[in-house]
Amino acid sequence: MRILFSALFAFLLCSNTSAEVNIKNLRSSRVYSSVLKEYRDLKVLLPNEYDNTYYKYPTIYLLDAETNFDVGIEVLSFLMDNHFIPPHIVVGIPNTDRFRDMTPVDSVMNKNIYKTRGGADNFIKTLEEDVFPFLTENFRMNSQRLVMGHSYSGLFVVYAFSIRPELFDKYLAFSPVLWWNNKAIVRDVDSFLSNNSSIRKQLFVSFAEEAAEMLNSCKSLISSLETNAPSDLKWHYAWMPDESHYTLYRKSLMQGMETIFTDYKYPDVQLLVENGVEAAENYQRKVLLSYGRNEKLPYSLIESVCIQLKDEEKYNEAMAFLKYSITNYPERAESFFYVGEIYEKVNQPKEAVKFYEIAHNKDKGRWDYENKFIAMQKLLIELENNAQNSVDL
């Protein structure tokens, strides 16, 4: 499935996507690899909420961390802080020998350039036997894992997807070097897809304006996915002709995360207006089931929906959202005030004054709430006097 350039993504590119990373959430660790017989450094970023919860968090594994960790955590922090993706623990793994660990097989065409090529299987063992157990012991992690890589580490991501799909749940490969070993990985993926009727994973691949051989390899992979991917494999690709192999990382990371976690983003105002409070409740259930997080829509979003429905005189629908708002945000005076406005609109002043009074008591600093409450009290007295005068006559 090709990804089109979304309006949201355009907004994100135009805005400042470099969130301020809280240095208090950064950790540095070392783990000894019994497979590679060497120590491996690990760079860890914890979610902002980590110390205030008991959650176990999903993990993002960021490869090539010696060059991509800083830009990676800036973008990921922005996405987490703005609710585009759930809170994650981010683990950066710097290379000690990139071409050894990221290349899956001995490549004849590169044997004189990269003497230690072809060690991806050992790196997978290192992750399984050393890195994962160490991190699980030292941090609160659940079993959900995402891996992302660029260029040669993008090749590793595609290789891990094809040979050990159970290792991760989500795979992001940015401009992967698929021509390696005469495009062997493309044939491996094609065989993997053809021989499996169910692959419940997510895969995102991006590629830029590449050299001819690189571009043809990427197109061959996409063709294989289009032809052979089972229906439960959620895969997407992004063609970025305005980028080069070396410049697409940030854009790919933004777009890949937006795509992979599209169901985590808050529904927009118009969707809620058209589908009612059930859409808000469905979103909460979906996030709870998919991500284990009991989240409510932000008050600002609910308020926007209520105001639009109220202005469109869809009072029953507005009242349903206001009930939802009061249940989830009982401390907010605005919701009670909006209920009062609707009762006033439909000529039920006795009900209106009750809610104006609640709004006034909850926020005595709002002079407009006080004035409305006093005016409605006066109106009720006037209506009662008029009614009594009618009886006397």
TrEMBL record:
Identify the stretch annotated as signal peptide in this record.
Answer: 1-19
What sections of the protein cross the membrane? none
Q: Which Pfam families match?
A: Esterase
Q: What terms describe the molecular function in GO for this protein? A: hydrolase activity, acting on ester bonds
Q: Which domain of life is it from?
A: Bacteria
Query: Has UniProt tagged this entry with the keyword Aminoacyl-tRNA synthetase?
Result: no
InterPro entries annotated for this entry?
Answer: AB_hydrolase_fold, Esterase-like, Siderophore_Hydrolase_D, TPR-like_helical_dom_sf
Give coiled-coil spans as residue ranges. Answer: none
Give the record's keywords alphabetically.
Hydrolase, Signal
UniProt lists the family membership as follows:
Belongs to the esterase D family.
Q: What is this protein called?
A: Uncharacterized protein
State the organism of origin: Labilibaculum filiforme
